[in-house]
Amino acid sequence: SIPIAKQLASIKALGKVSDLEKAFATAALVYNNSADPEGKLSKAETKSLLQTQFGGFIQGQENKPKYREIISALDEESENKIDFEDFMILLVSLTLMSDLLQEIKNVKTTK
After folding, report:
1. 3-class SS at 82?
2. Residues 35-74: b if buried by 16+ CB within 10 A, e if exposed
3. 61 and 12 fall within a common domain
4. Are 84 and 39 in contact (CB under 8 A)?
5. Distance between CA 76 and CA 74 in Å, rounded?
6. Do 105 and 62 reside in the same domain of the chain?
7. How many CB atoms lie within 10 A of CB 22?
8. Is residue 29 within 8 Å of 62, Cβ to Cβ?
9. How many domains does the chain have?
10. Structural domain of 29
């Protein structure tokens, strides 16, 4: 497996883009590296990917009702798979409820 940083570097168009664009490109690459040939993830694979790649944001969220609702939906036995759009919605939802987001908001930038 080729490291994400090398994959990013191989996308010539990303050479002159913003940090935010690189962040979204990274999310897309992480997703694509785990997705099946149809570009989808099973719910179990989605949960595993979130736990391994997004642990800083989901750590400590276990008692929040919205977090439990999201994880419960991923635990359901279902043939439904997650596409990239739904995955990104999960990332945004988990980010918005995370304690880490508050810490990020509190970071002071200096110029």
Report:
1. strand
2. beeeebbbbebbbebbeebbeebbeebeeeeebeebbeeb
3. no
4. yes
5. 6
6. yes
7. 14
8. no
9. 2
10. 1-34
Q: Which of 55, 50, 53, 58 is nearest to 82 (CA)?
A: 50
User: Using an 8 Å Cβ cutoff, are 101 and 57 in contact?
Assistant: yes
> 49 near 41, Cβ under 8 Å?
yes
State the pLDDT at residue 48: 92
Mind listing the pLDDT tens digit for each residue in 48-90?
999 999 999 999 888 988 888 888 888 876 678 999 999 999 9
Q: With 90 as the cut, is the pLDDT of residue 41 above it?
A: yes
- The yes-or-no verdict on residue 8 having pLDDT over 90 is no
CB-CB neighbours of 82 under 10 Å: 21
